[in-house]
Amino acid sequence: MLCASLFGSSAFAADTSFIRDYAETRGFQLGRPVAPQLTPDGKSVLFLRAAGPRTAKQSVFEFDVASGQTRELLTAEQVLGTGDEALSPEEKARRERARISVGGFTSLQLSKDGSQILAPLAGRLFLLERATAKARELPLVGNVLDPRFSPDGRQLAFVRDFDLWTFELATNRERRLTRGGNEAVSHGLAEFVAQEEMSRFTGYWWSPDSKSLLYQASDARAVEVWHLADPFKPDRAPSPQFYPRPGKANVKVRLGVISAKGGRTRWLDWDATKHPYFTHADWHPAGGLTITVQTRDQREVVLLRVNPKTGATSPLLTERDPVWVNLDPKFPQWLKDGSGFLWTTERHGWWELERRGADGAFRETLIETEARWHSLVHADEMGQTIHFLAQRTPVERQLCRRDADGSITQLTRGLGLASAVFGGPSPLMALTRETPDSLARTSVQRPDGTVLGELPSVAETPKLTIRTHLLELNEGVEFHIRVTRPRDFNPTKKYPVLVDVYGGPHSQVVQAAQRGWLLPQWLADQGFIVVAADNRGTPGRGRDWEREIFGEFGSVPVQDQVSVLELLGKKYPELDLDRVGITGWSFGGYLGALGVLRRPDVFKAGVAGAPVTDWLDYDTHYTERYLGVPGDGDTVYAANSLLQDAVGLSRPLLLIHGTADDNVFFRHSLKLADALTRAGKSFEFVPLGGFTHMVPEPAMAEQRWLRTVDFFQRHLGGAK
Asked: Is 186 helix (H, G, I), strand (E, B) or coil?
């Protein structure tokens, strides 16, 4: 029978003080500088930051490099008063895709000369003069999406009512460039899978001379419509969403070039039947207009040169992989004179950086596999000096520089995660570092490493002693593992084990950064030893490691997690492998349920947060990349579904899911609950009323973790 326990059956024994602080500070991230941008002259750094450590609303700040002083330029209260932000459904969806959970200013854009800041807020646009710190609201009616300066700084483009518009700053004149836009046929907006899976959040691009725009026309009329009917809010009408599922129709995308003054659209011509996915566009002053397109099975990506006057396209290069081609949205990077471009490839087993000619032909490999390239930070105009992030080991990211002579220098030292931002012609950079001993800190530096200042933080520091260590274990497969013990650990006792898991593509849980160690420490302090490992299929280990997961969501990750437990059990006798629980969210939630369903001999209790339970109900671009395009008689999707295993549930299982989730729909947990109920199985279910895939509200975030601890304490017990 179904046991729909919302509150558990025993009083919580967990320490609530830390988890409450963790929830209210969003993991101690509120009050830390984010999204730094250097002004072109290198004199200032702009950034966003919450005003306080428990205020989930961001303001715009400016750091003066010479004086080290910071001033607040613009707050939401200055322009909205005490009123709430009124976000359109489209803006809410964009924020969900970008995983933005804070309010206030969530983005800013600097004009090319650095004199003005464009700051959108609640569908309205504000133009801030840096010299005077005075802001004016632009006279635009209705909700404005994706506003951006033209390259010359004289105009803006934006999307409103599903059509593309421009706005002249000097005259306040707006022009509607396209017509007929609606929910099904939109102009200038990235479709769902582009935002969710391709990291492309825009649907238009300015020409370098500011006279034309390339824009995307999206026709979703053939796409299946799902209605997000939140049972927590029955007074609200269901919200329709075009949601493409595996094997079904995708949005049809066309690209067109139109004058910034309006007129006829010149449509681009490429074989959209063979390459239906449009993934990226770049319009360079010397390199011209290029677009990147992809086959439905994602095994081929083609970079196309575009003639914007005729719409004709011609291939520059083609990437192929027998399993799938990963996308790198930062490329191509054209050289200033248009003589060629930089390009990344996994062709030889790890990401490499190449220089290509203007015709797309290979010229040379600039950064080879041994450098362990992770991502581009900055390349100078001719691709001579290149700053990039490298994963010398899977748990770290270091800032490196390649000089013109081909030599590579590592600029950051010590375990941790680095990221950096350069300021165009400015020689300065904003370097952010996270380490095992500290949360994120951002410093302003010269290329030689001289620190000129640090962006001020008002975030709280967690009052928690961390007992985590990283290790490598190898028995045929090398695993990087995180082990966290309670602060009052007693080596003479045996402890139940919690496996903290994600296990899917795109994300690692084992990293040398304190941010990912805080919650595991709190969990451990409640009477567990918490372990985590990145199994095959996760990033940071090269092409072959990542592609081991193809068609094997339901086998490879669980197999590797079991192997890790066996290796740890041999090394650490304090781990009680007869009492192992598993918990995760999203793909980790899928593995949380999968563990108790398919390996009940190992996992004695599981918590599944927002799990995908049937991959036929997830989106096309993600799922088909890893499980293939389903066809008649296809058995792969059935083999990776949780539903067929419901009849065999023999261990305690807790499902947690937001009722308004528009990424992993609430339907997933409902379908598993239905299958378990029909099979006569007992389980627990905590629906999070009104929440999406994110659960940022402090009270509910706190309860989510308290109920998780209570569940494991009831079913696994404590140290013995």
From this structure: strand
- Structural contact between residues 379 and 386, judged by C-beta atoms closer than 8 angstroms: yes
Options 21, 645, 661, 710, the catalytic residue: 661
| Nearest 10 degrees: Cα torsion 402, 405, 407, 410 | -40
The whole-number pLDDT of residue 96 equals 81
| Residue 547 DSSP symbol | H
For the beta carbon of residue 675, count every other beta carbon within 10 angstroms. Answer: 20
Cα–Cα dist 55/40, whole Å: 31
Q: How many CB atoms lie within 10 A of CB 77?
A: 13
CB 51 within 8 A of CB 57: yes
Q: For residues 176 and 163, give the distance between their C-alpha atoms in angstroms, rounded to a whole number.
A: 7
Q: Is residue 436 part of a domain?
A: no
Do residues 695 and 688 lie in contact, with contact meaning Cβ atoms separated by under 8 Å?
Answer: yes
Catalytic residue among 59, 111, 207, 586: 586
- The count of structural domains within the chain is 2
Confirm whether 367 is domain-assigned.
no
- Which residue is catalytic, options 657, 693, 710, 715? 693
Instruction: Round to whole Å and give the CA distance between 715 and 682.
Output: 14
Question: pLDDT, tens digit, for every residue of 261-284?
Answer: 999 999 999 999 999 999 999 999
Collect all residues with Cβ–Cβ distance below 8 Å to 174 and sequence separation of at least 6.
140, 165, 166, 167, 168
Q: Is residue 235 part of a domain?
A: yes
The DSSP H or E segment spanning 674 is: helix 667-678
Q: What is the CATH number of the domain that holds 575?
A: 3.40.50.1820
- Token digits of residue 21: 């602080």
Q: Which residues contact 124 (CB under 8 A, 6 or more apart)?
A: 79, 137, 138, 140, 144
Its domain, for residue 293, covers: 139-329
Query: Sign of the CA dihedral 149, 154, 155, 156?
Result: positive
CA-atom Rg of the chain in angstroms: 26
152 is an active site residue: no
pLDDT at 9: 44
How distant is the alpha carbon of residue 175 from its chain centre? Answer: 34
How do residues 572-587 score in pLDDT, each as one tens digit? 999 999 999 999 999 9
- ∠ CA(353), CA(354), CA(356), 5° rounding? 150
Do 468 and 519 form a contact (C-beta atoms < 8 A)? no
Q: pTM value?
A: 0.94
3-state secondary structure at position 71:
strand
> What is the mean pLDDT of the segment spanning 136-164?
94
Helix (H, G, I), strand (E, B) or coil at 621: helix
* pLDDT tens digits along 525-567: 999 999 999 999 999 999 999 999 999 999 999 999 999 999 9
Look up residue 314 and give its two tokens.
């011609």
Q: What confidence category does residue 394 fall into, taking pLDDT thresholds of 50, 70 and 90? A: very high
The tens digit of pLDDT for each residue in 468-484 reads 999 999 988 999 999 99
Is 693 catalytic? The answer is: yes
Q: Which of 449, 417, 454, 447 is nearest to 434 (CA)?
A: 417
- Local structure of residue 151 (DSSP, 8 states): T
Residue 219: closest CA among 281, 267, 260, 157: 267
- pLDDT tens for each residue of 689-714: 999 999 989 999 999 999 999 999 99
Q: To 10 degrees, the CA torsion angle through 181, 185, 189, 194?
A: 180
- Domain with residue 195: its CATH number is 2.140.10.30
Residue indicated by tokens 């973790």 = 705
Is 212 designated active site? no
Calpha distance 33→515 (Å, rounded):
15
